[in-house]
Design a protein that fits this description.
34% of the residues lie in helices and 23% in strands. The chain is built from eleven helices and 20 strands. The N and C termini lie far apart (51 Å). The N terminus is likely disordered.
Length: 440
């Protein structure tokens, strides 16, 4: 497979850390044992305490903002909500473009590793074709340990990327999952170093916008600490998060009292407090690992789900998060055996059920506005007005089958994957969302 040529194993410039990029999971392997990681945490203990302090200082403003927006419907129009991420693999670009057009994705995020810039010309051609097709291209720049050891290496790489893609891409993610040591950053101050070096590059280009801080999982102390630094507040045009909830199972399940709705709402409140209501909040990475060959799974088999559950969760994730403060969600990723909506095992190419779930969702809703929301026990119901002026209710049950009476006239009923359903005064809701199109 072409992926294998992208495997990277080397040592950092200071000879301290072995960097092993795993092409099967598209992330670095963990370079330390657990006790070694604990030692690293202790080395930067002072920085971690500062981050915690700056986070706490935001709470007096954040708490009332969170409760205030939790009472509103957030009727903001979502124009480019349904997005996907892809890896930087030129041999797939032609095929990927066709799939992106098929599923009606609004935007595509391409990951570009700072240590692998040989294919920038191919990347530009790919992103330009997307742009010409009406799909907005954005780029996330991935750092490694050498980026913090040698800031000029990082700056030169960022400059090379932006210069090559100038006029094609306008949004760039600065850094990636820096709150995980395997990605090469040891403290939030080191991450701010990366942001500031990228800002030096931005000055030479017109219309370039940055998003960050790209914190992975529900670790908002890291997000708040970075954004609320009193002297080094980053100049982000978009706030983002890599908001995985796979370890909780279903997106509706709570962790520390927060489910996906509350987590997205909290990120919206943080964004409002730091940058204002007009600053967008994007979720630039999420998925569930699939039951697949273990070496292709980015987490573990414990969190893995089958393809039906994966397709259910995908739709439910988009509907919940885009109704609670996120303007875009980028599913990671389009093609991957262990976590993609297309399976590529052994050189194959198979559209999973989630492919058709994404396509149905994007076609029916596209540009939309939330007009009503009901959550009663395990029944979830969201009503949207789409770009054509049609009202569509998306509903499901998070626990077992529930037979409910429909209290409005239904013109059409569509399954999660686009099949027409029989219309009556009642419907049996399951874990698979259905689309009920209101009669005009």
């Amino acid at each position: 497979m072409s992926k294998k040529k992208n495997e990277v194993i080397n040592y950092s410039k200071d000879k301290k850390v072995k960097f092993h990029w795993n092409p099967l999971t598209q992330q670095p392997n963990i370079p330390y044992s657990k006790w070694q990681r604990n030692i690293e945490y202790l080395k930067f203990g002072g920085d971690h305490l500062k981050m915690l302090f700056y986070s706490i200082k935001l709470l007096p403003e954040l708490i009332p903002e969170y409760f205030s927006i939790s009472k509103s419907l957030m009727p903001k129009e979502i124009k480019k909500g349904f997005c996907v991420g892809v890896e930087n693999e030129p041999s797939r670009f032609d095929r990927i473009i066709n799939e992106i057009k098929e599923i009606k994705a609004n935007s595509v995020l391409l990951r570009i590793p700072i240590w692998d810039l040989e294919n920038l010309g191919y990347s530009r051609d790919f992103l330009l074709e997307l742009k010409n097709s009406g799909v907005e291209p954005v780029v996330s720049i991935l750092q490694d340990y050498n980026s913090t050891v040698d800031l000029n290496y990082w700056k030169n790489g960022v400059e090379k990327i932006i210069k090559e893609l100038d006029g094609v891409v306008f949004y760039y993610g600065i850094g990636h999952a820096w709150n995980r040591y395997k990605w090469g950053v040891r403290s939030f101050l080191q991450y701010l170093d990366l942001v500031e070096k990228a800002d030096e590059v931005r000055k030479d280009f017109q219309g370039i916008k940055f998003f960050g801080p790209s914190v992975i999982d529900f670790e908002y102390i890291c997000t708040m600490g970075v954004l609320n630094h009193p002297k080094r507040k980053p100049k982000f045009d978009v706030v983002n998060a890599l908001l995985y909830v796979d370890r909780q199972g279903a997106p509706e399940k709570k962790y520390l009292g927060f489910n996906l709705f509350h987590k997205t709402l909290l990120m919206r409140a943080i964004t409002n407090c730091v940058y204002g209501e007009e600053t967008p909040f994007w979720i630039t990475e999420t998925n569930w690992p699939l039951i697949a060959n273990a070496e292709y799974i980015p987490t573990s088999l414990k969190e893995s789900v089958d393809e039906k559950v994966y397709a259910d969760y995908l739709v439910r994730y988009y509907i919940i998060s885009l109704s609670s403060g996120a303007e875009r969600v980028y599913w990671w990723q389009l093609v991957a055996h262990g976590y993609g909506i297309i399976d590529d095992i052994d050189g194959g190419w198979r559209r999973r059920s989630a492919f058709y779930s994404f396509k149905t969702m994007a076609e029916l809703l596209d540009s939309f506005k939330l007009v009503n929301k009901k959550i009663e026990k395990s029944i979830y119901s969201f009503t949207f007005e789409n770009y054509k002026g049609a009202f569509i209710t998306v509903a499901w049950s998070s626990k077992g089958e529930k037979r409910i009476k429909i209290d409005f006239d239904v013109e059409d009923a569509i399954s999660r994957n686009g099949e027409r359903l029989k219309i009556s005064d009642y419907i049996t809701l399951t874990s698979s969302p259905v689309y009920l199109i209101h009669r005009r």
